[in-house]
Amino acid sequence: MFKRFLYLSFLFLGACASQGDINASQNIDSKHTLKTNLSPAAIVKPNPVVVEKDLWQYISNRHTLKARSQKDLFWHIDWFKKNPDYLTRVTKRAKPYLYLVTEEVEKAGLPIEIALLPIVESAYYPFSYSHGTASGLWQFIPSTGKLYGLKEDWWYDGRRDVLASTKAAVKYLKNLTKLFKGDYLLAIAAYNSGPGRVQKAVRKNKRLGKKDDFWHLDLPAETRGYVPRLLAVAELIKHPEKYGQTITPVSNAAQLRVVKLDSQFDLAMISQWADLSLDEIYSLNPGLKRWATPSNPPYKLLLPINNIDTFEKNLSAQPKSARVRWLRHKVKSGESLSYLANKYKTTLSQIKSANSLKDNLIKVGDHLIMPVAQRGENDYTLSENEREKRRLNAKKTGVKVVHTVASGDSLWKIAKLYKVQIDSLVKWNHITRSKPLALGKQLVIWQAKPAKEKDLSKVTNVGIDINRKVTYRVKKGDNLSKIANKFNVSVANLRLWNKLDSKKPLQPGQKLKIVVNVINSKMK
């Protein structure tokens, strides 16, 4: 944040003497030391520059964005007052990244409150993922991320990379500010709902002769609350005691530094050489999706400044071959490159590159070298695969169903089958709407708990037994959806009643227990 010191230096020079006085009295020696003819008593000594030790205080002292009145912030501030632990957790989570983010915001000349925007977007959680497929601290959707240079492949997602996504967000907000002629509130609103929507609202107000600032536009409810929420967060951080908030202090000094890697590294080796845990490596570099850095270097790794020397010292003492472990594999009958890529948790392109293959053809008996992780898969706890496993095993309210993607499946078809929203499927499984589902991929689905069966002993004057249990023998061509439709029951209940494993397909002749409502059933 060199600008704050440079600015104060200019002020001091201006206050001491006019440019003419300086030119008349100064001589510069060969070492470029400033000499003057003024007596020591005449030299005005500057006051010591006071720089806030707490970065939150530094940010708060430089606020420039304003609401119309406190009424605009009331409901948001009231929410935080009712949830006082929330901001405490979020400000603690922001600690490793806040200086880096603030520095990039200041370099761009944007209002310093922009450094607080990840609190609104992602609660400063870099692994955050929304139902709209937005990801990372700044919640970029795939299309906007791609537009601003955030790459994504099997190894890496730039939308979650703290440094790359921050640079992209700052660039995007600068462009939005230019689009809206310096109106920062409109730029921030456009960051949330898209520039086209805000432009349309502005044109509408101009056409109707109304004010066209943010506070008077007809925007979606989420966007109408987005800007005031950011301003409310700024107010809360500036006056935490006033609103019963606890803000975790953050040192006003750089905590991270980039180390440029010129080849692929196993994260276990980085962890060992930097004297950090694997979880710390992932948390500082959340763009990493697998057990290693990307196979197409260079890669910019973020490490704590205090660990840089340790890492570089250990790195220099190791041969280059120690960065990633390689295994020699003899091709067996039935194996393909895609099979081997899946087996060794790598990509087709990396196998082809490492083995100088021009195409995907391999023969039985060929020997290939394969990159393999130093540790077991479970040790890389924050890799994409391990986080997906935790989602599949998570406990929530309702009945969990695990659906294995089959040929012909789509999000629409699966959502209809289980009677859930597509947005919910996307959120539960951190998937992208626009990408086709991979065959064999497991999706977790949460459904409402089935209603308890009525105690029929208490039902009087009915004349018939409403619910009865039947045994159904699976026929060739049957599937759970078809059977559920036949008996007018849910797939979730079929799985629940029969303790079915989603990985195992139904077999002809298999017996299923079904609780049938004889009035509503389509059974003949």
Provide structural commentary:
This protein has helices at residues 2-16, 19-25, 55-60, 74-82, 84-93, 98-107, 117-122, 142-147, 162-179, 184-193, 195-207, 221-238, 267-274, 278-284, 305-316, 337-343, 348-354, 384-393, 411-418, 422-429, 480-487, 491-498, and strands at 27-28, 34-35, 256-261, 299-304, 325-330, 367-372, 399-404, 442-447, 467-473, 511-517. It is of the alpha+beta class and 524 residues long. It has five domains: 2-42, no CATH class; 55-243, Lysozyme (Orthogonal Bundle); 325-379, LysM domain (Membrane-bound Lytic Murein Transglycosylase D, Chain A), CATH 3.10.350; 394-447, Membrane-bound Lytic Murein Transglycosylase D, Chain A; 458-517, Roll (Membrane-bound Lytic Murein Transglycosylase D, Chain A). The strands form five sheets. It has a two-stranded antiparallel ribbon. The protein has a two-stranded antiparallel sheet with strand order 3-4. A two-stranded antiparallel ribbon has the order 5-6. The longest helix has 18 residues, at 162-179. The relative contact order is 0.07. Mean pLDDT is 82; it is low at 1-48, 453-466 and 518-524.
Quickly give the structural class.
alpha+beta
Give average pLDDT, whole number: 82
Main beta-sheet strand count, sense and barrel state: 2 strands, antiparallel
Q: Count every helix, treating DSSP H or I runs of 4 or more residues as helices.
A: 22
Percent strand = 5-15%
CATH architecture level-2 label of the largest domain: Orthogonal Bundle
List unreliable stretches of 5+ residues.
Answer: 1-48, 453-466, 518-524
Indicate the radius of gyration in whole angstroms.
30 Å
* Number of separate domains: 5
Terminal Cα separation, in Å?
77 Å
The CATH topology assignment of the largest domain is: Lysozyme
What is the CATH C-level name of the largest domain? Mainly Alpha
What overall form do the CA principal axes indicate?
globular
How many strand elements? 10
| Helix content estimate | 40-55%
Quaternary structure type? single chain
- Spatial strand sequence of the major β-sheet: 1-2
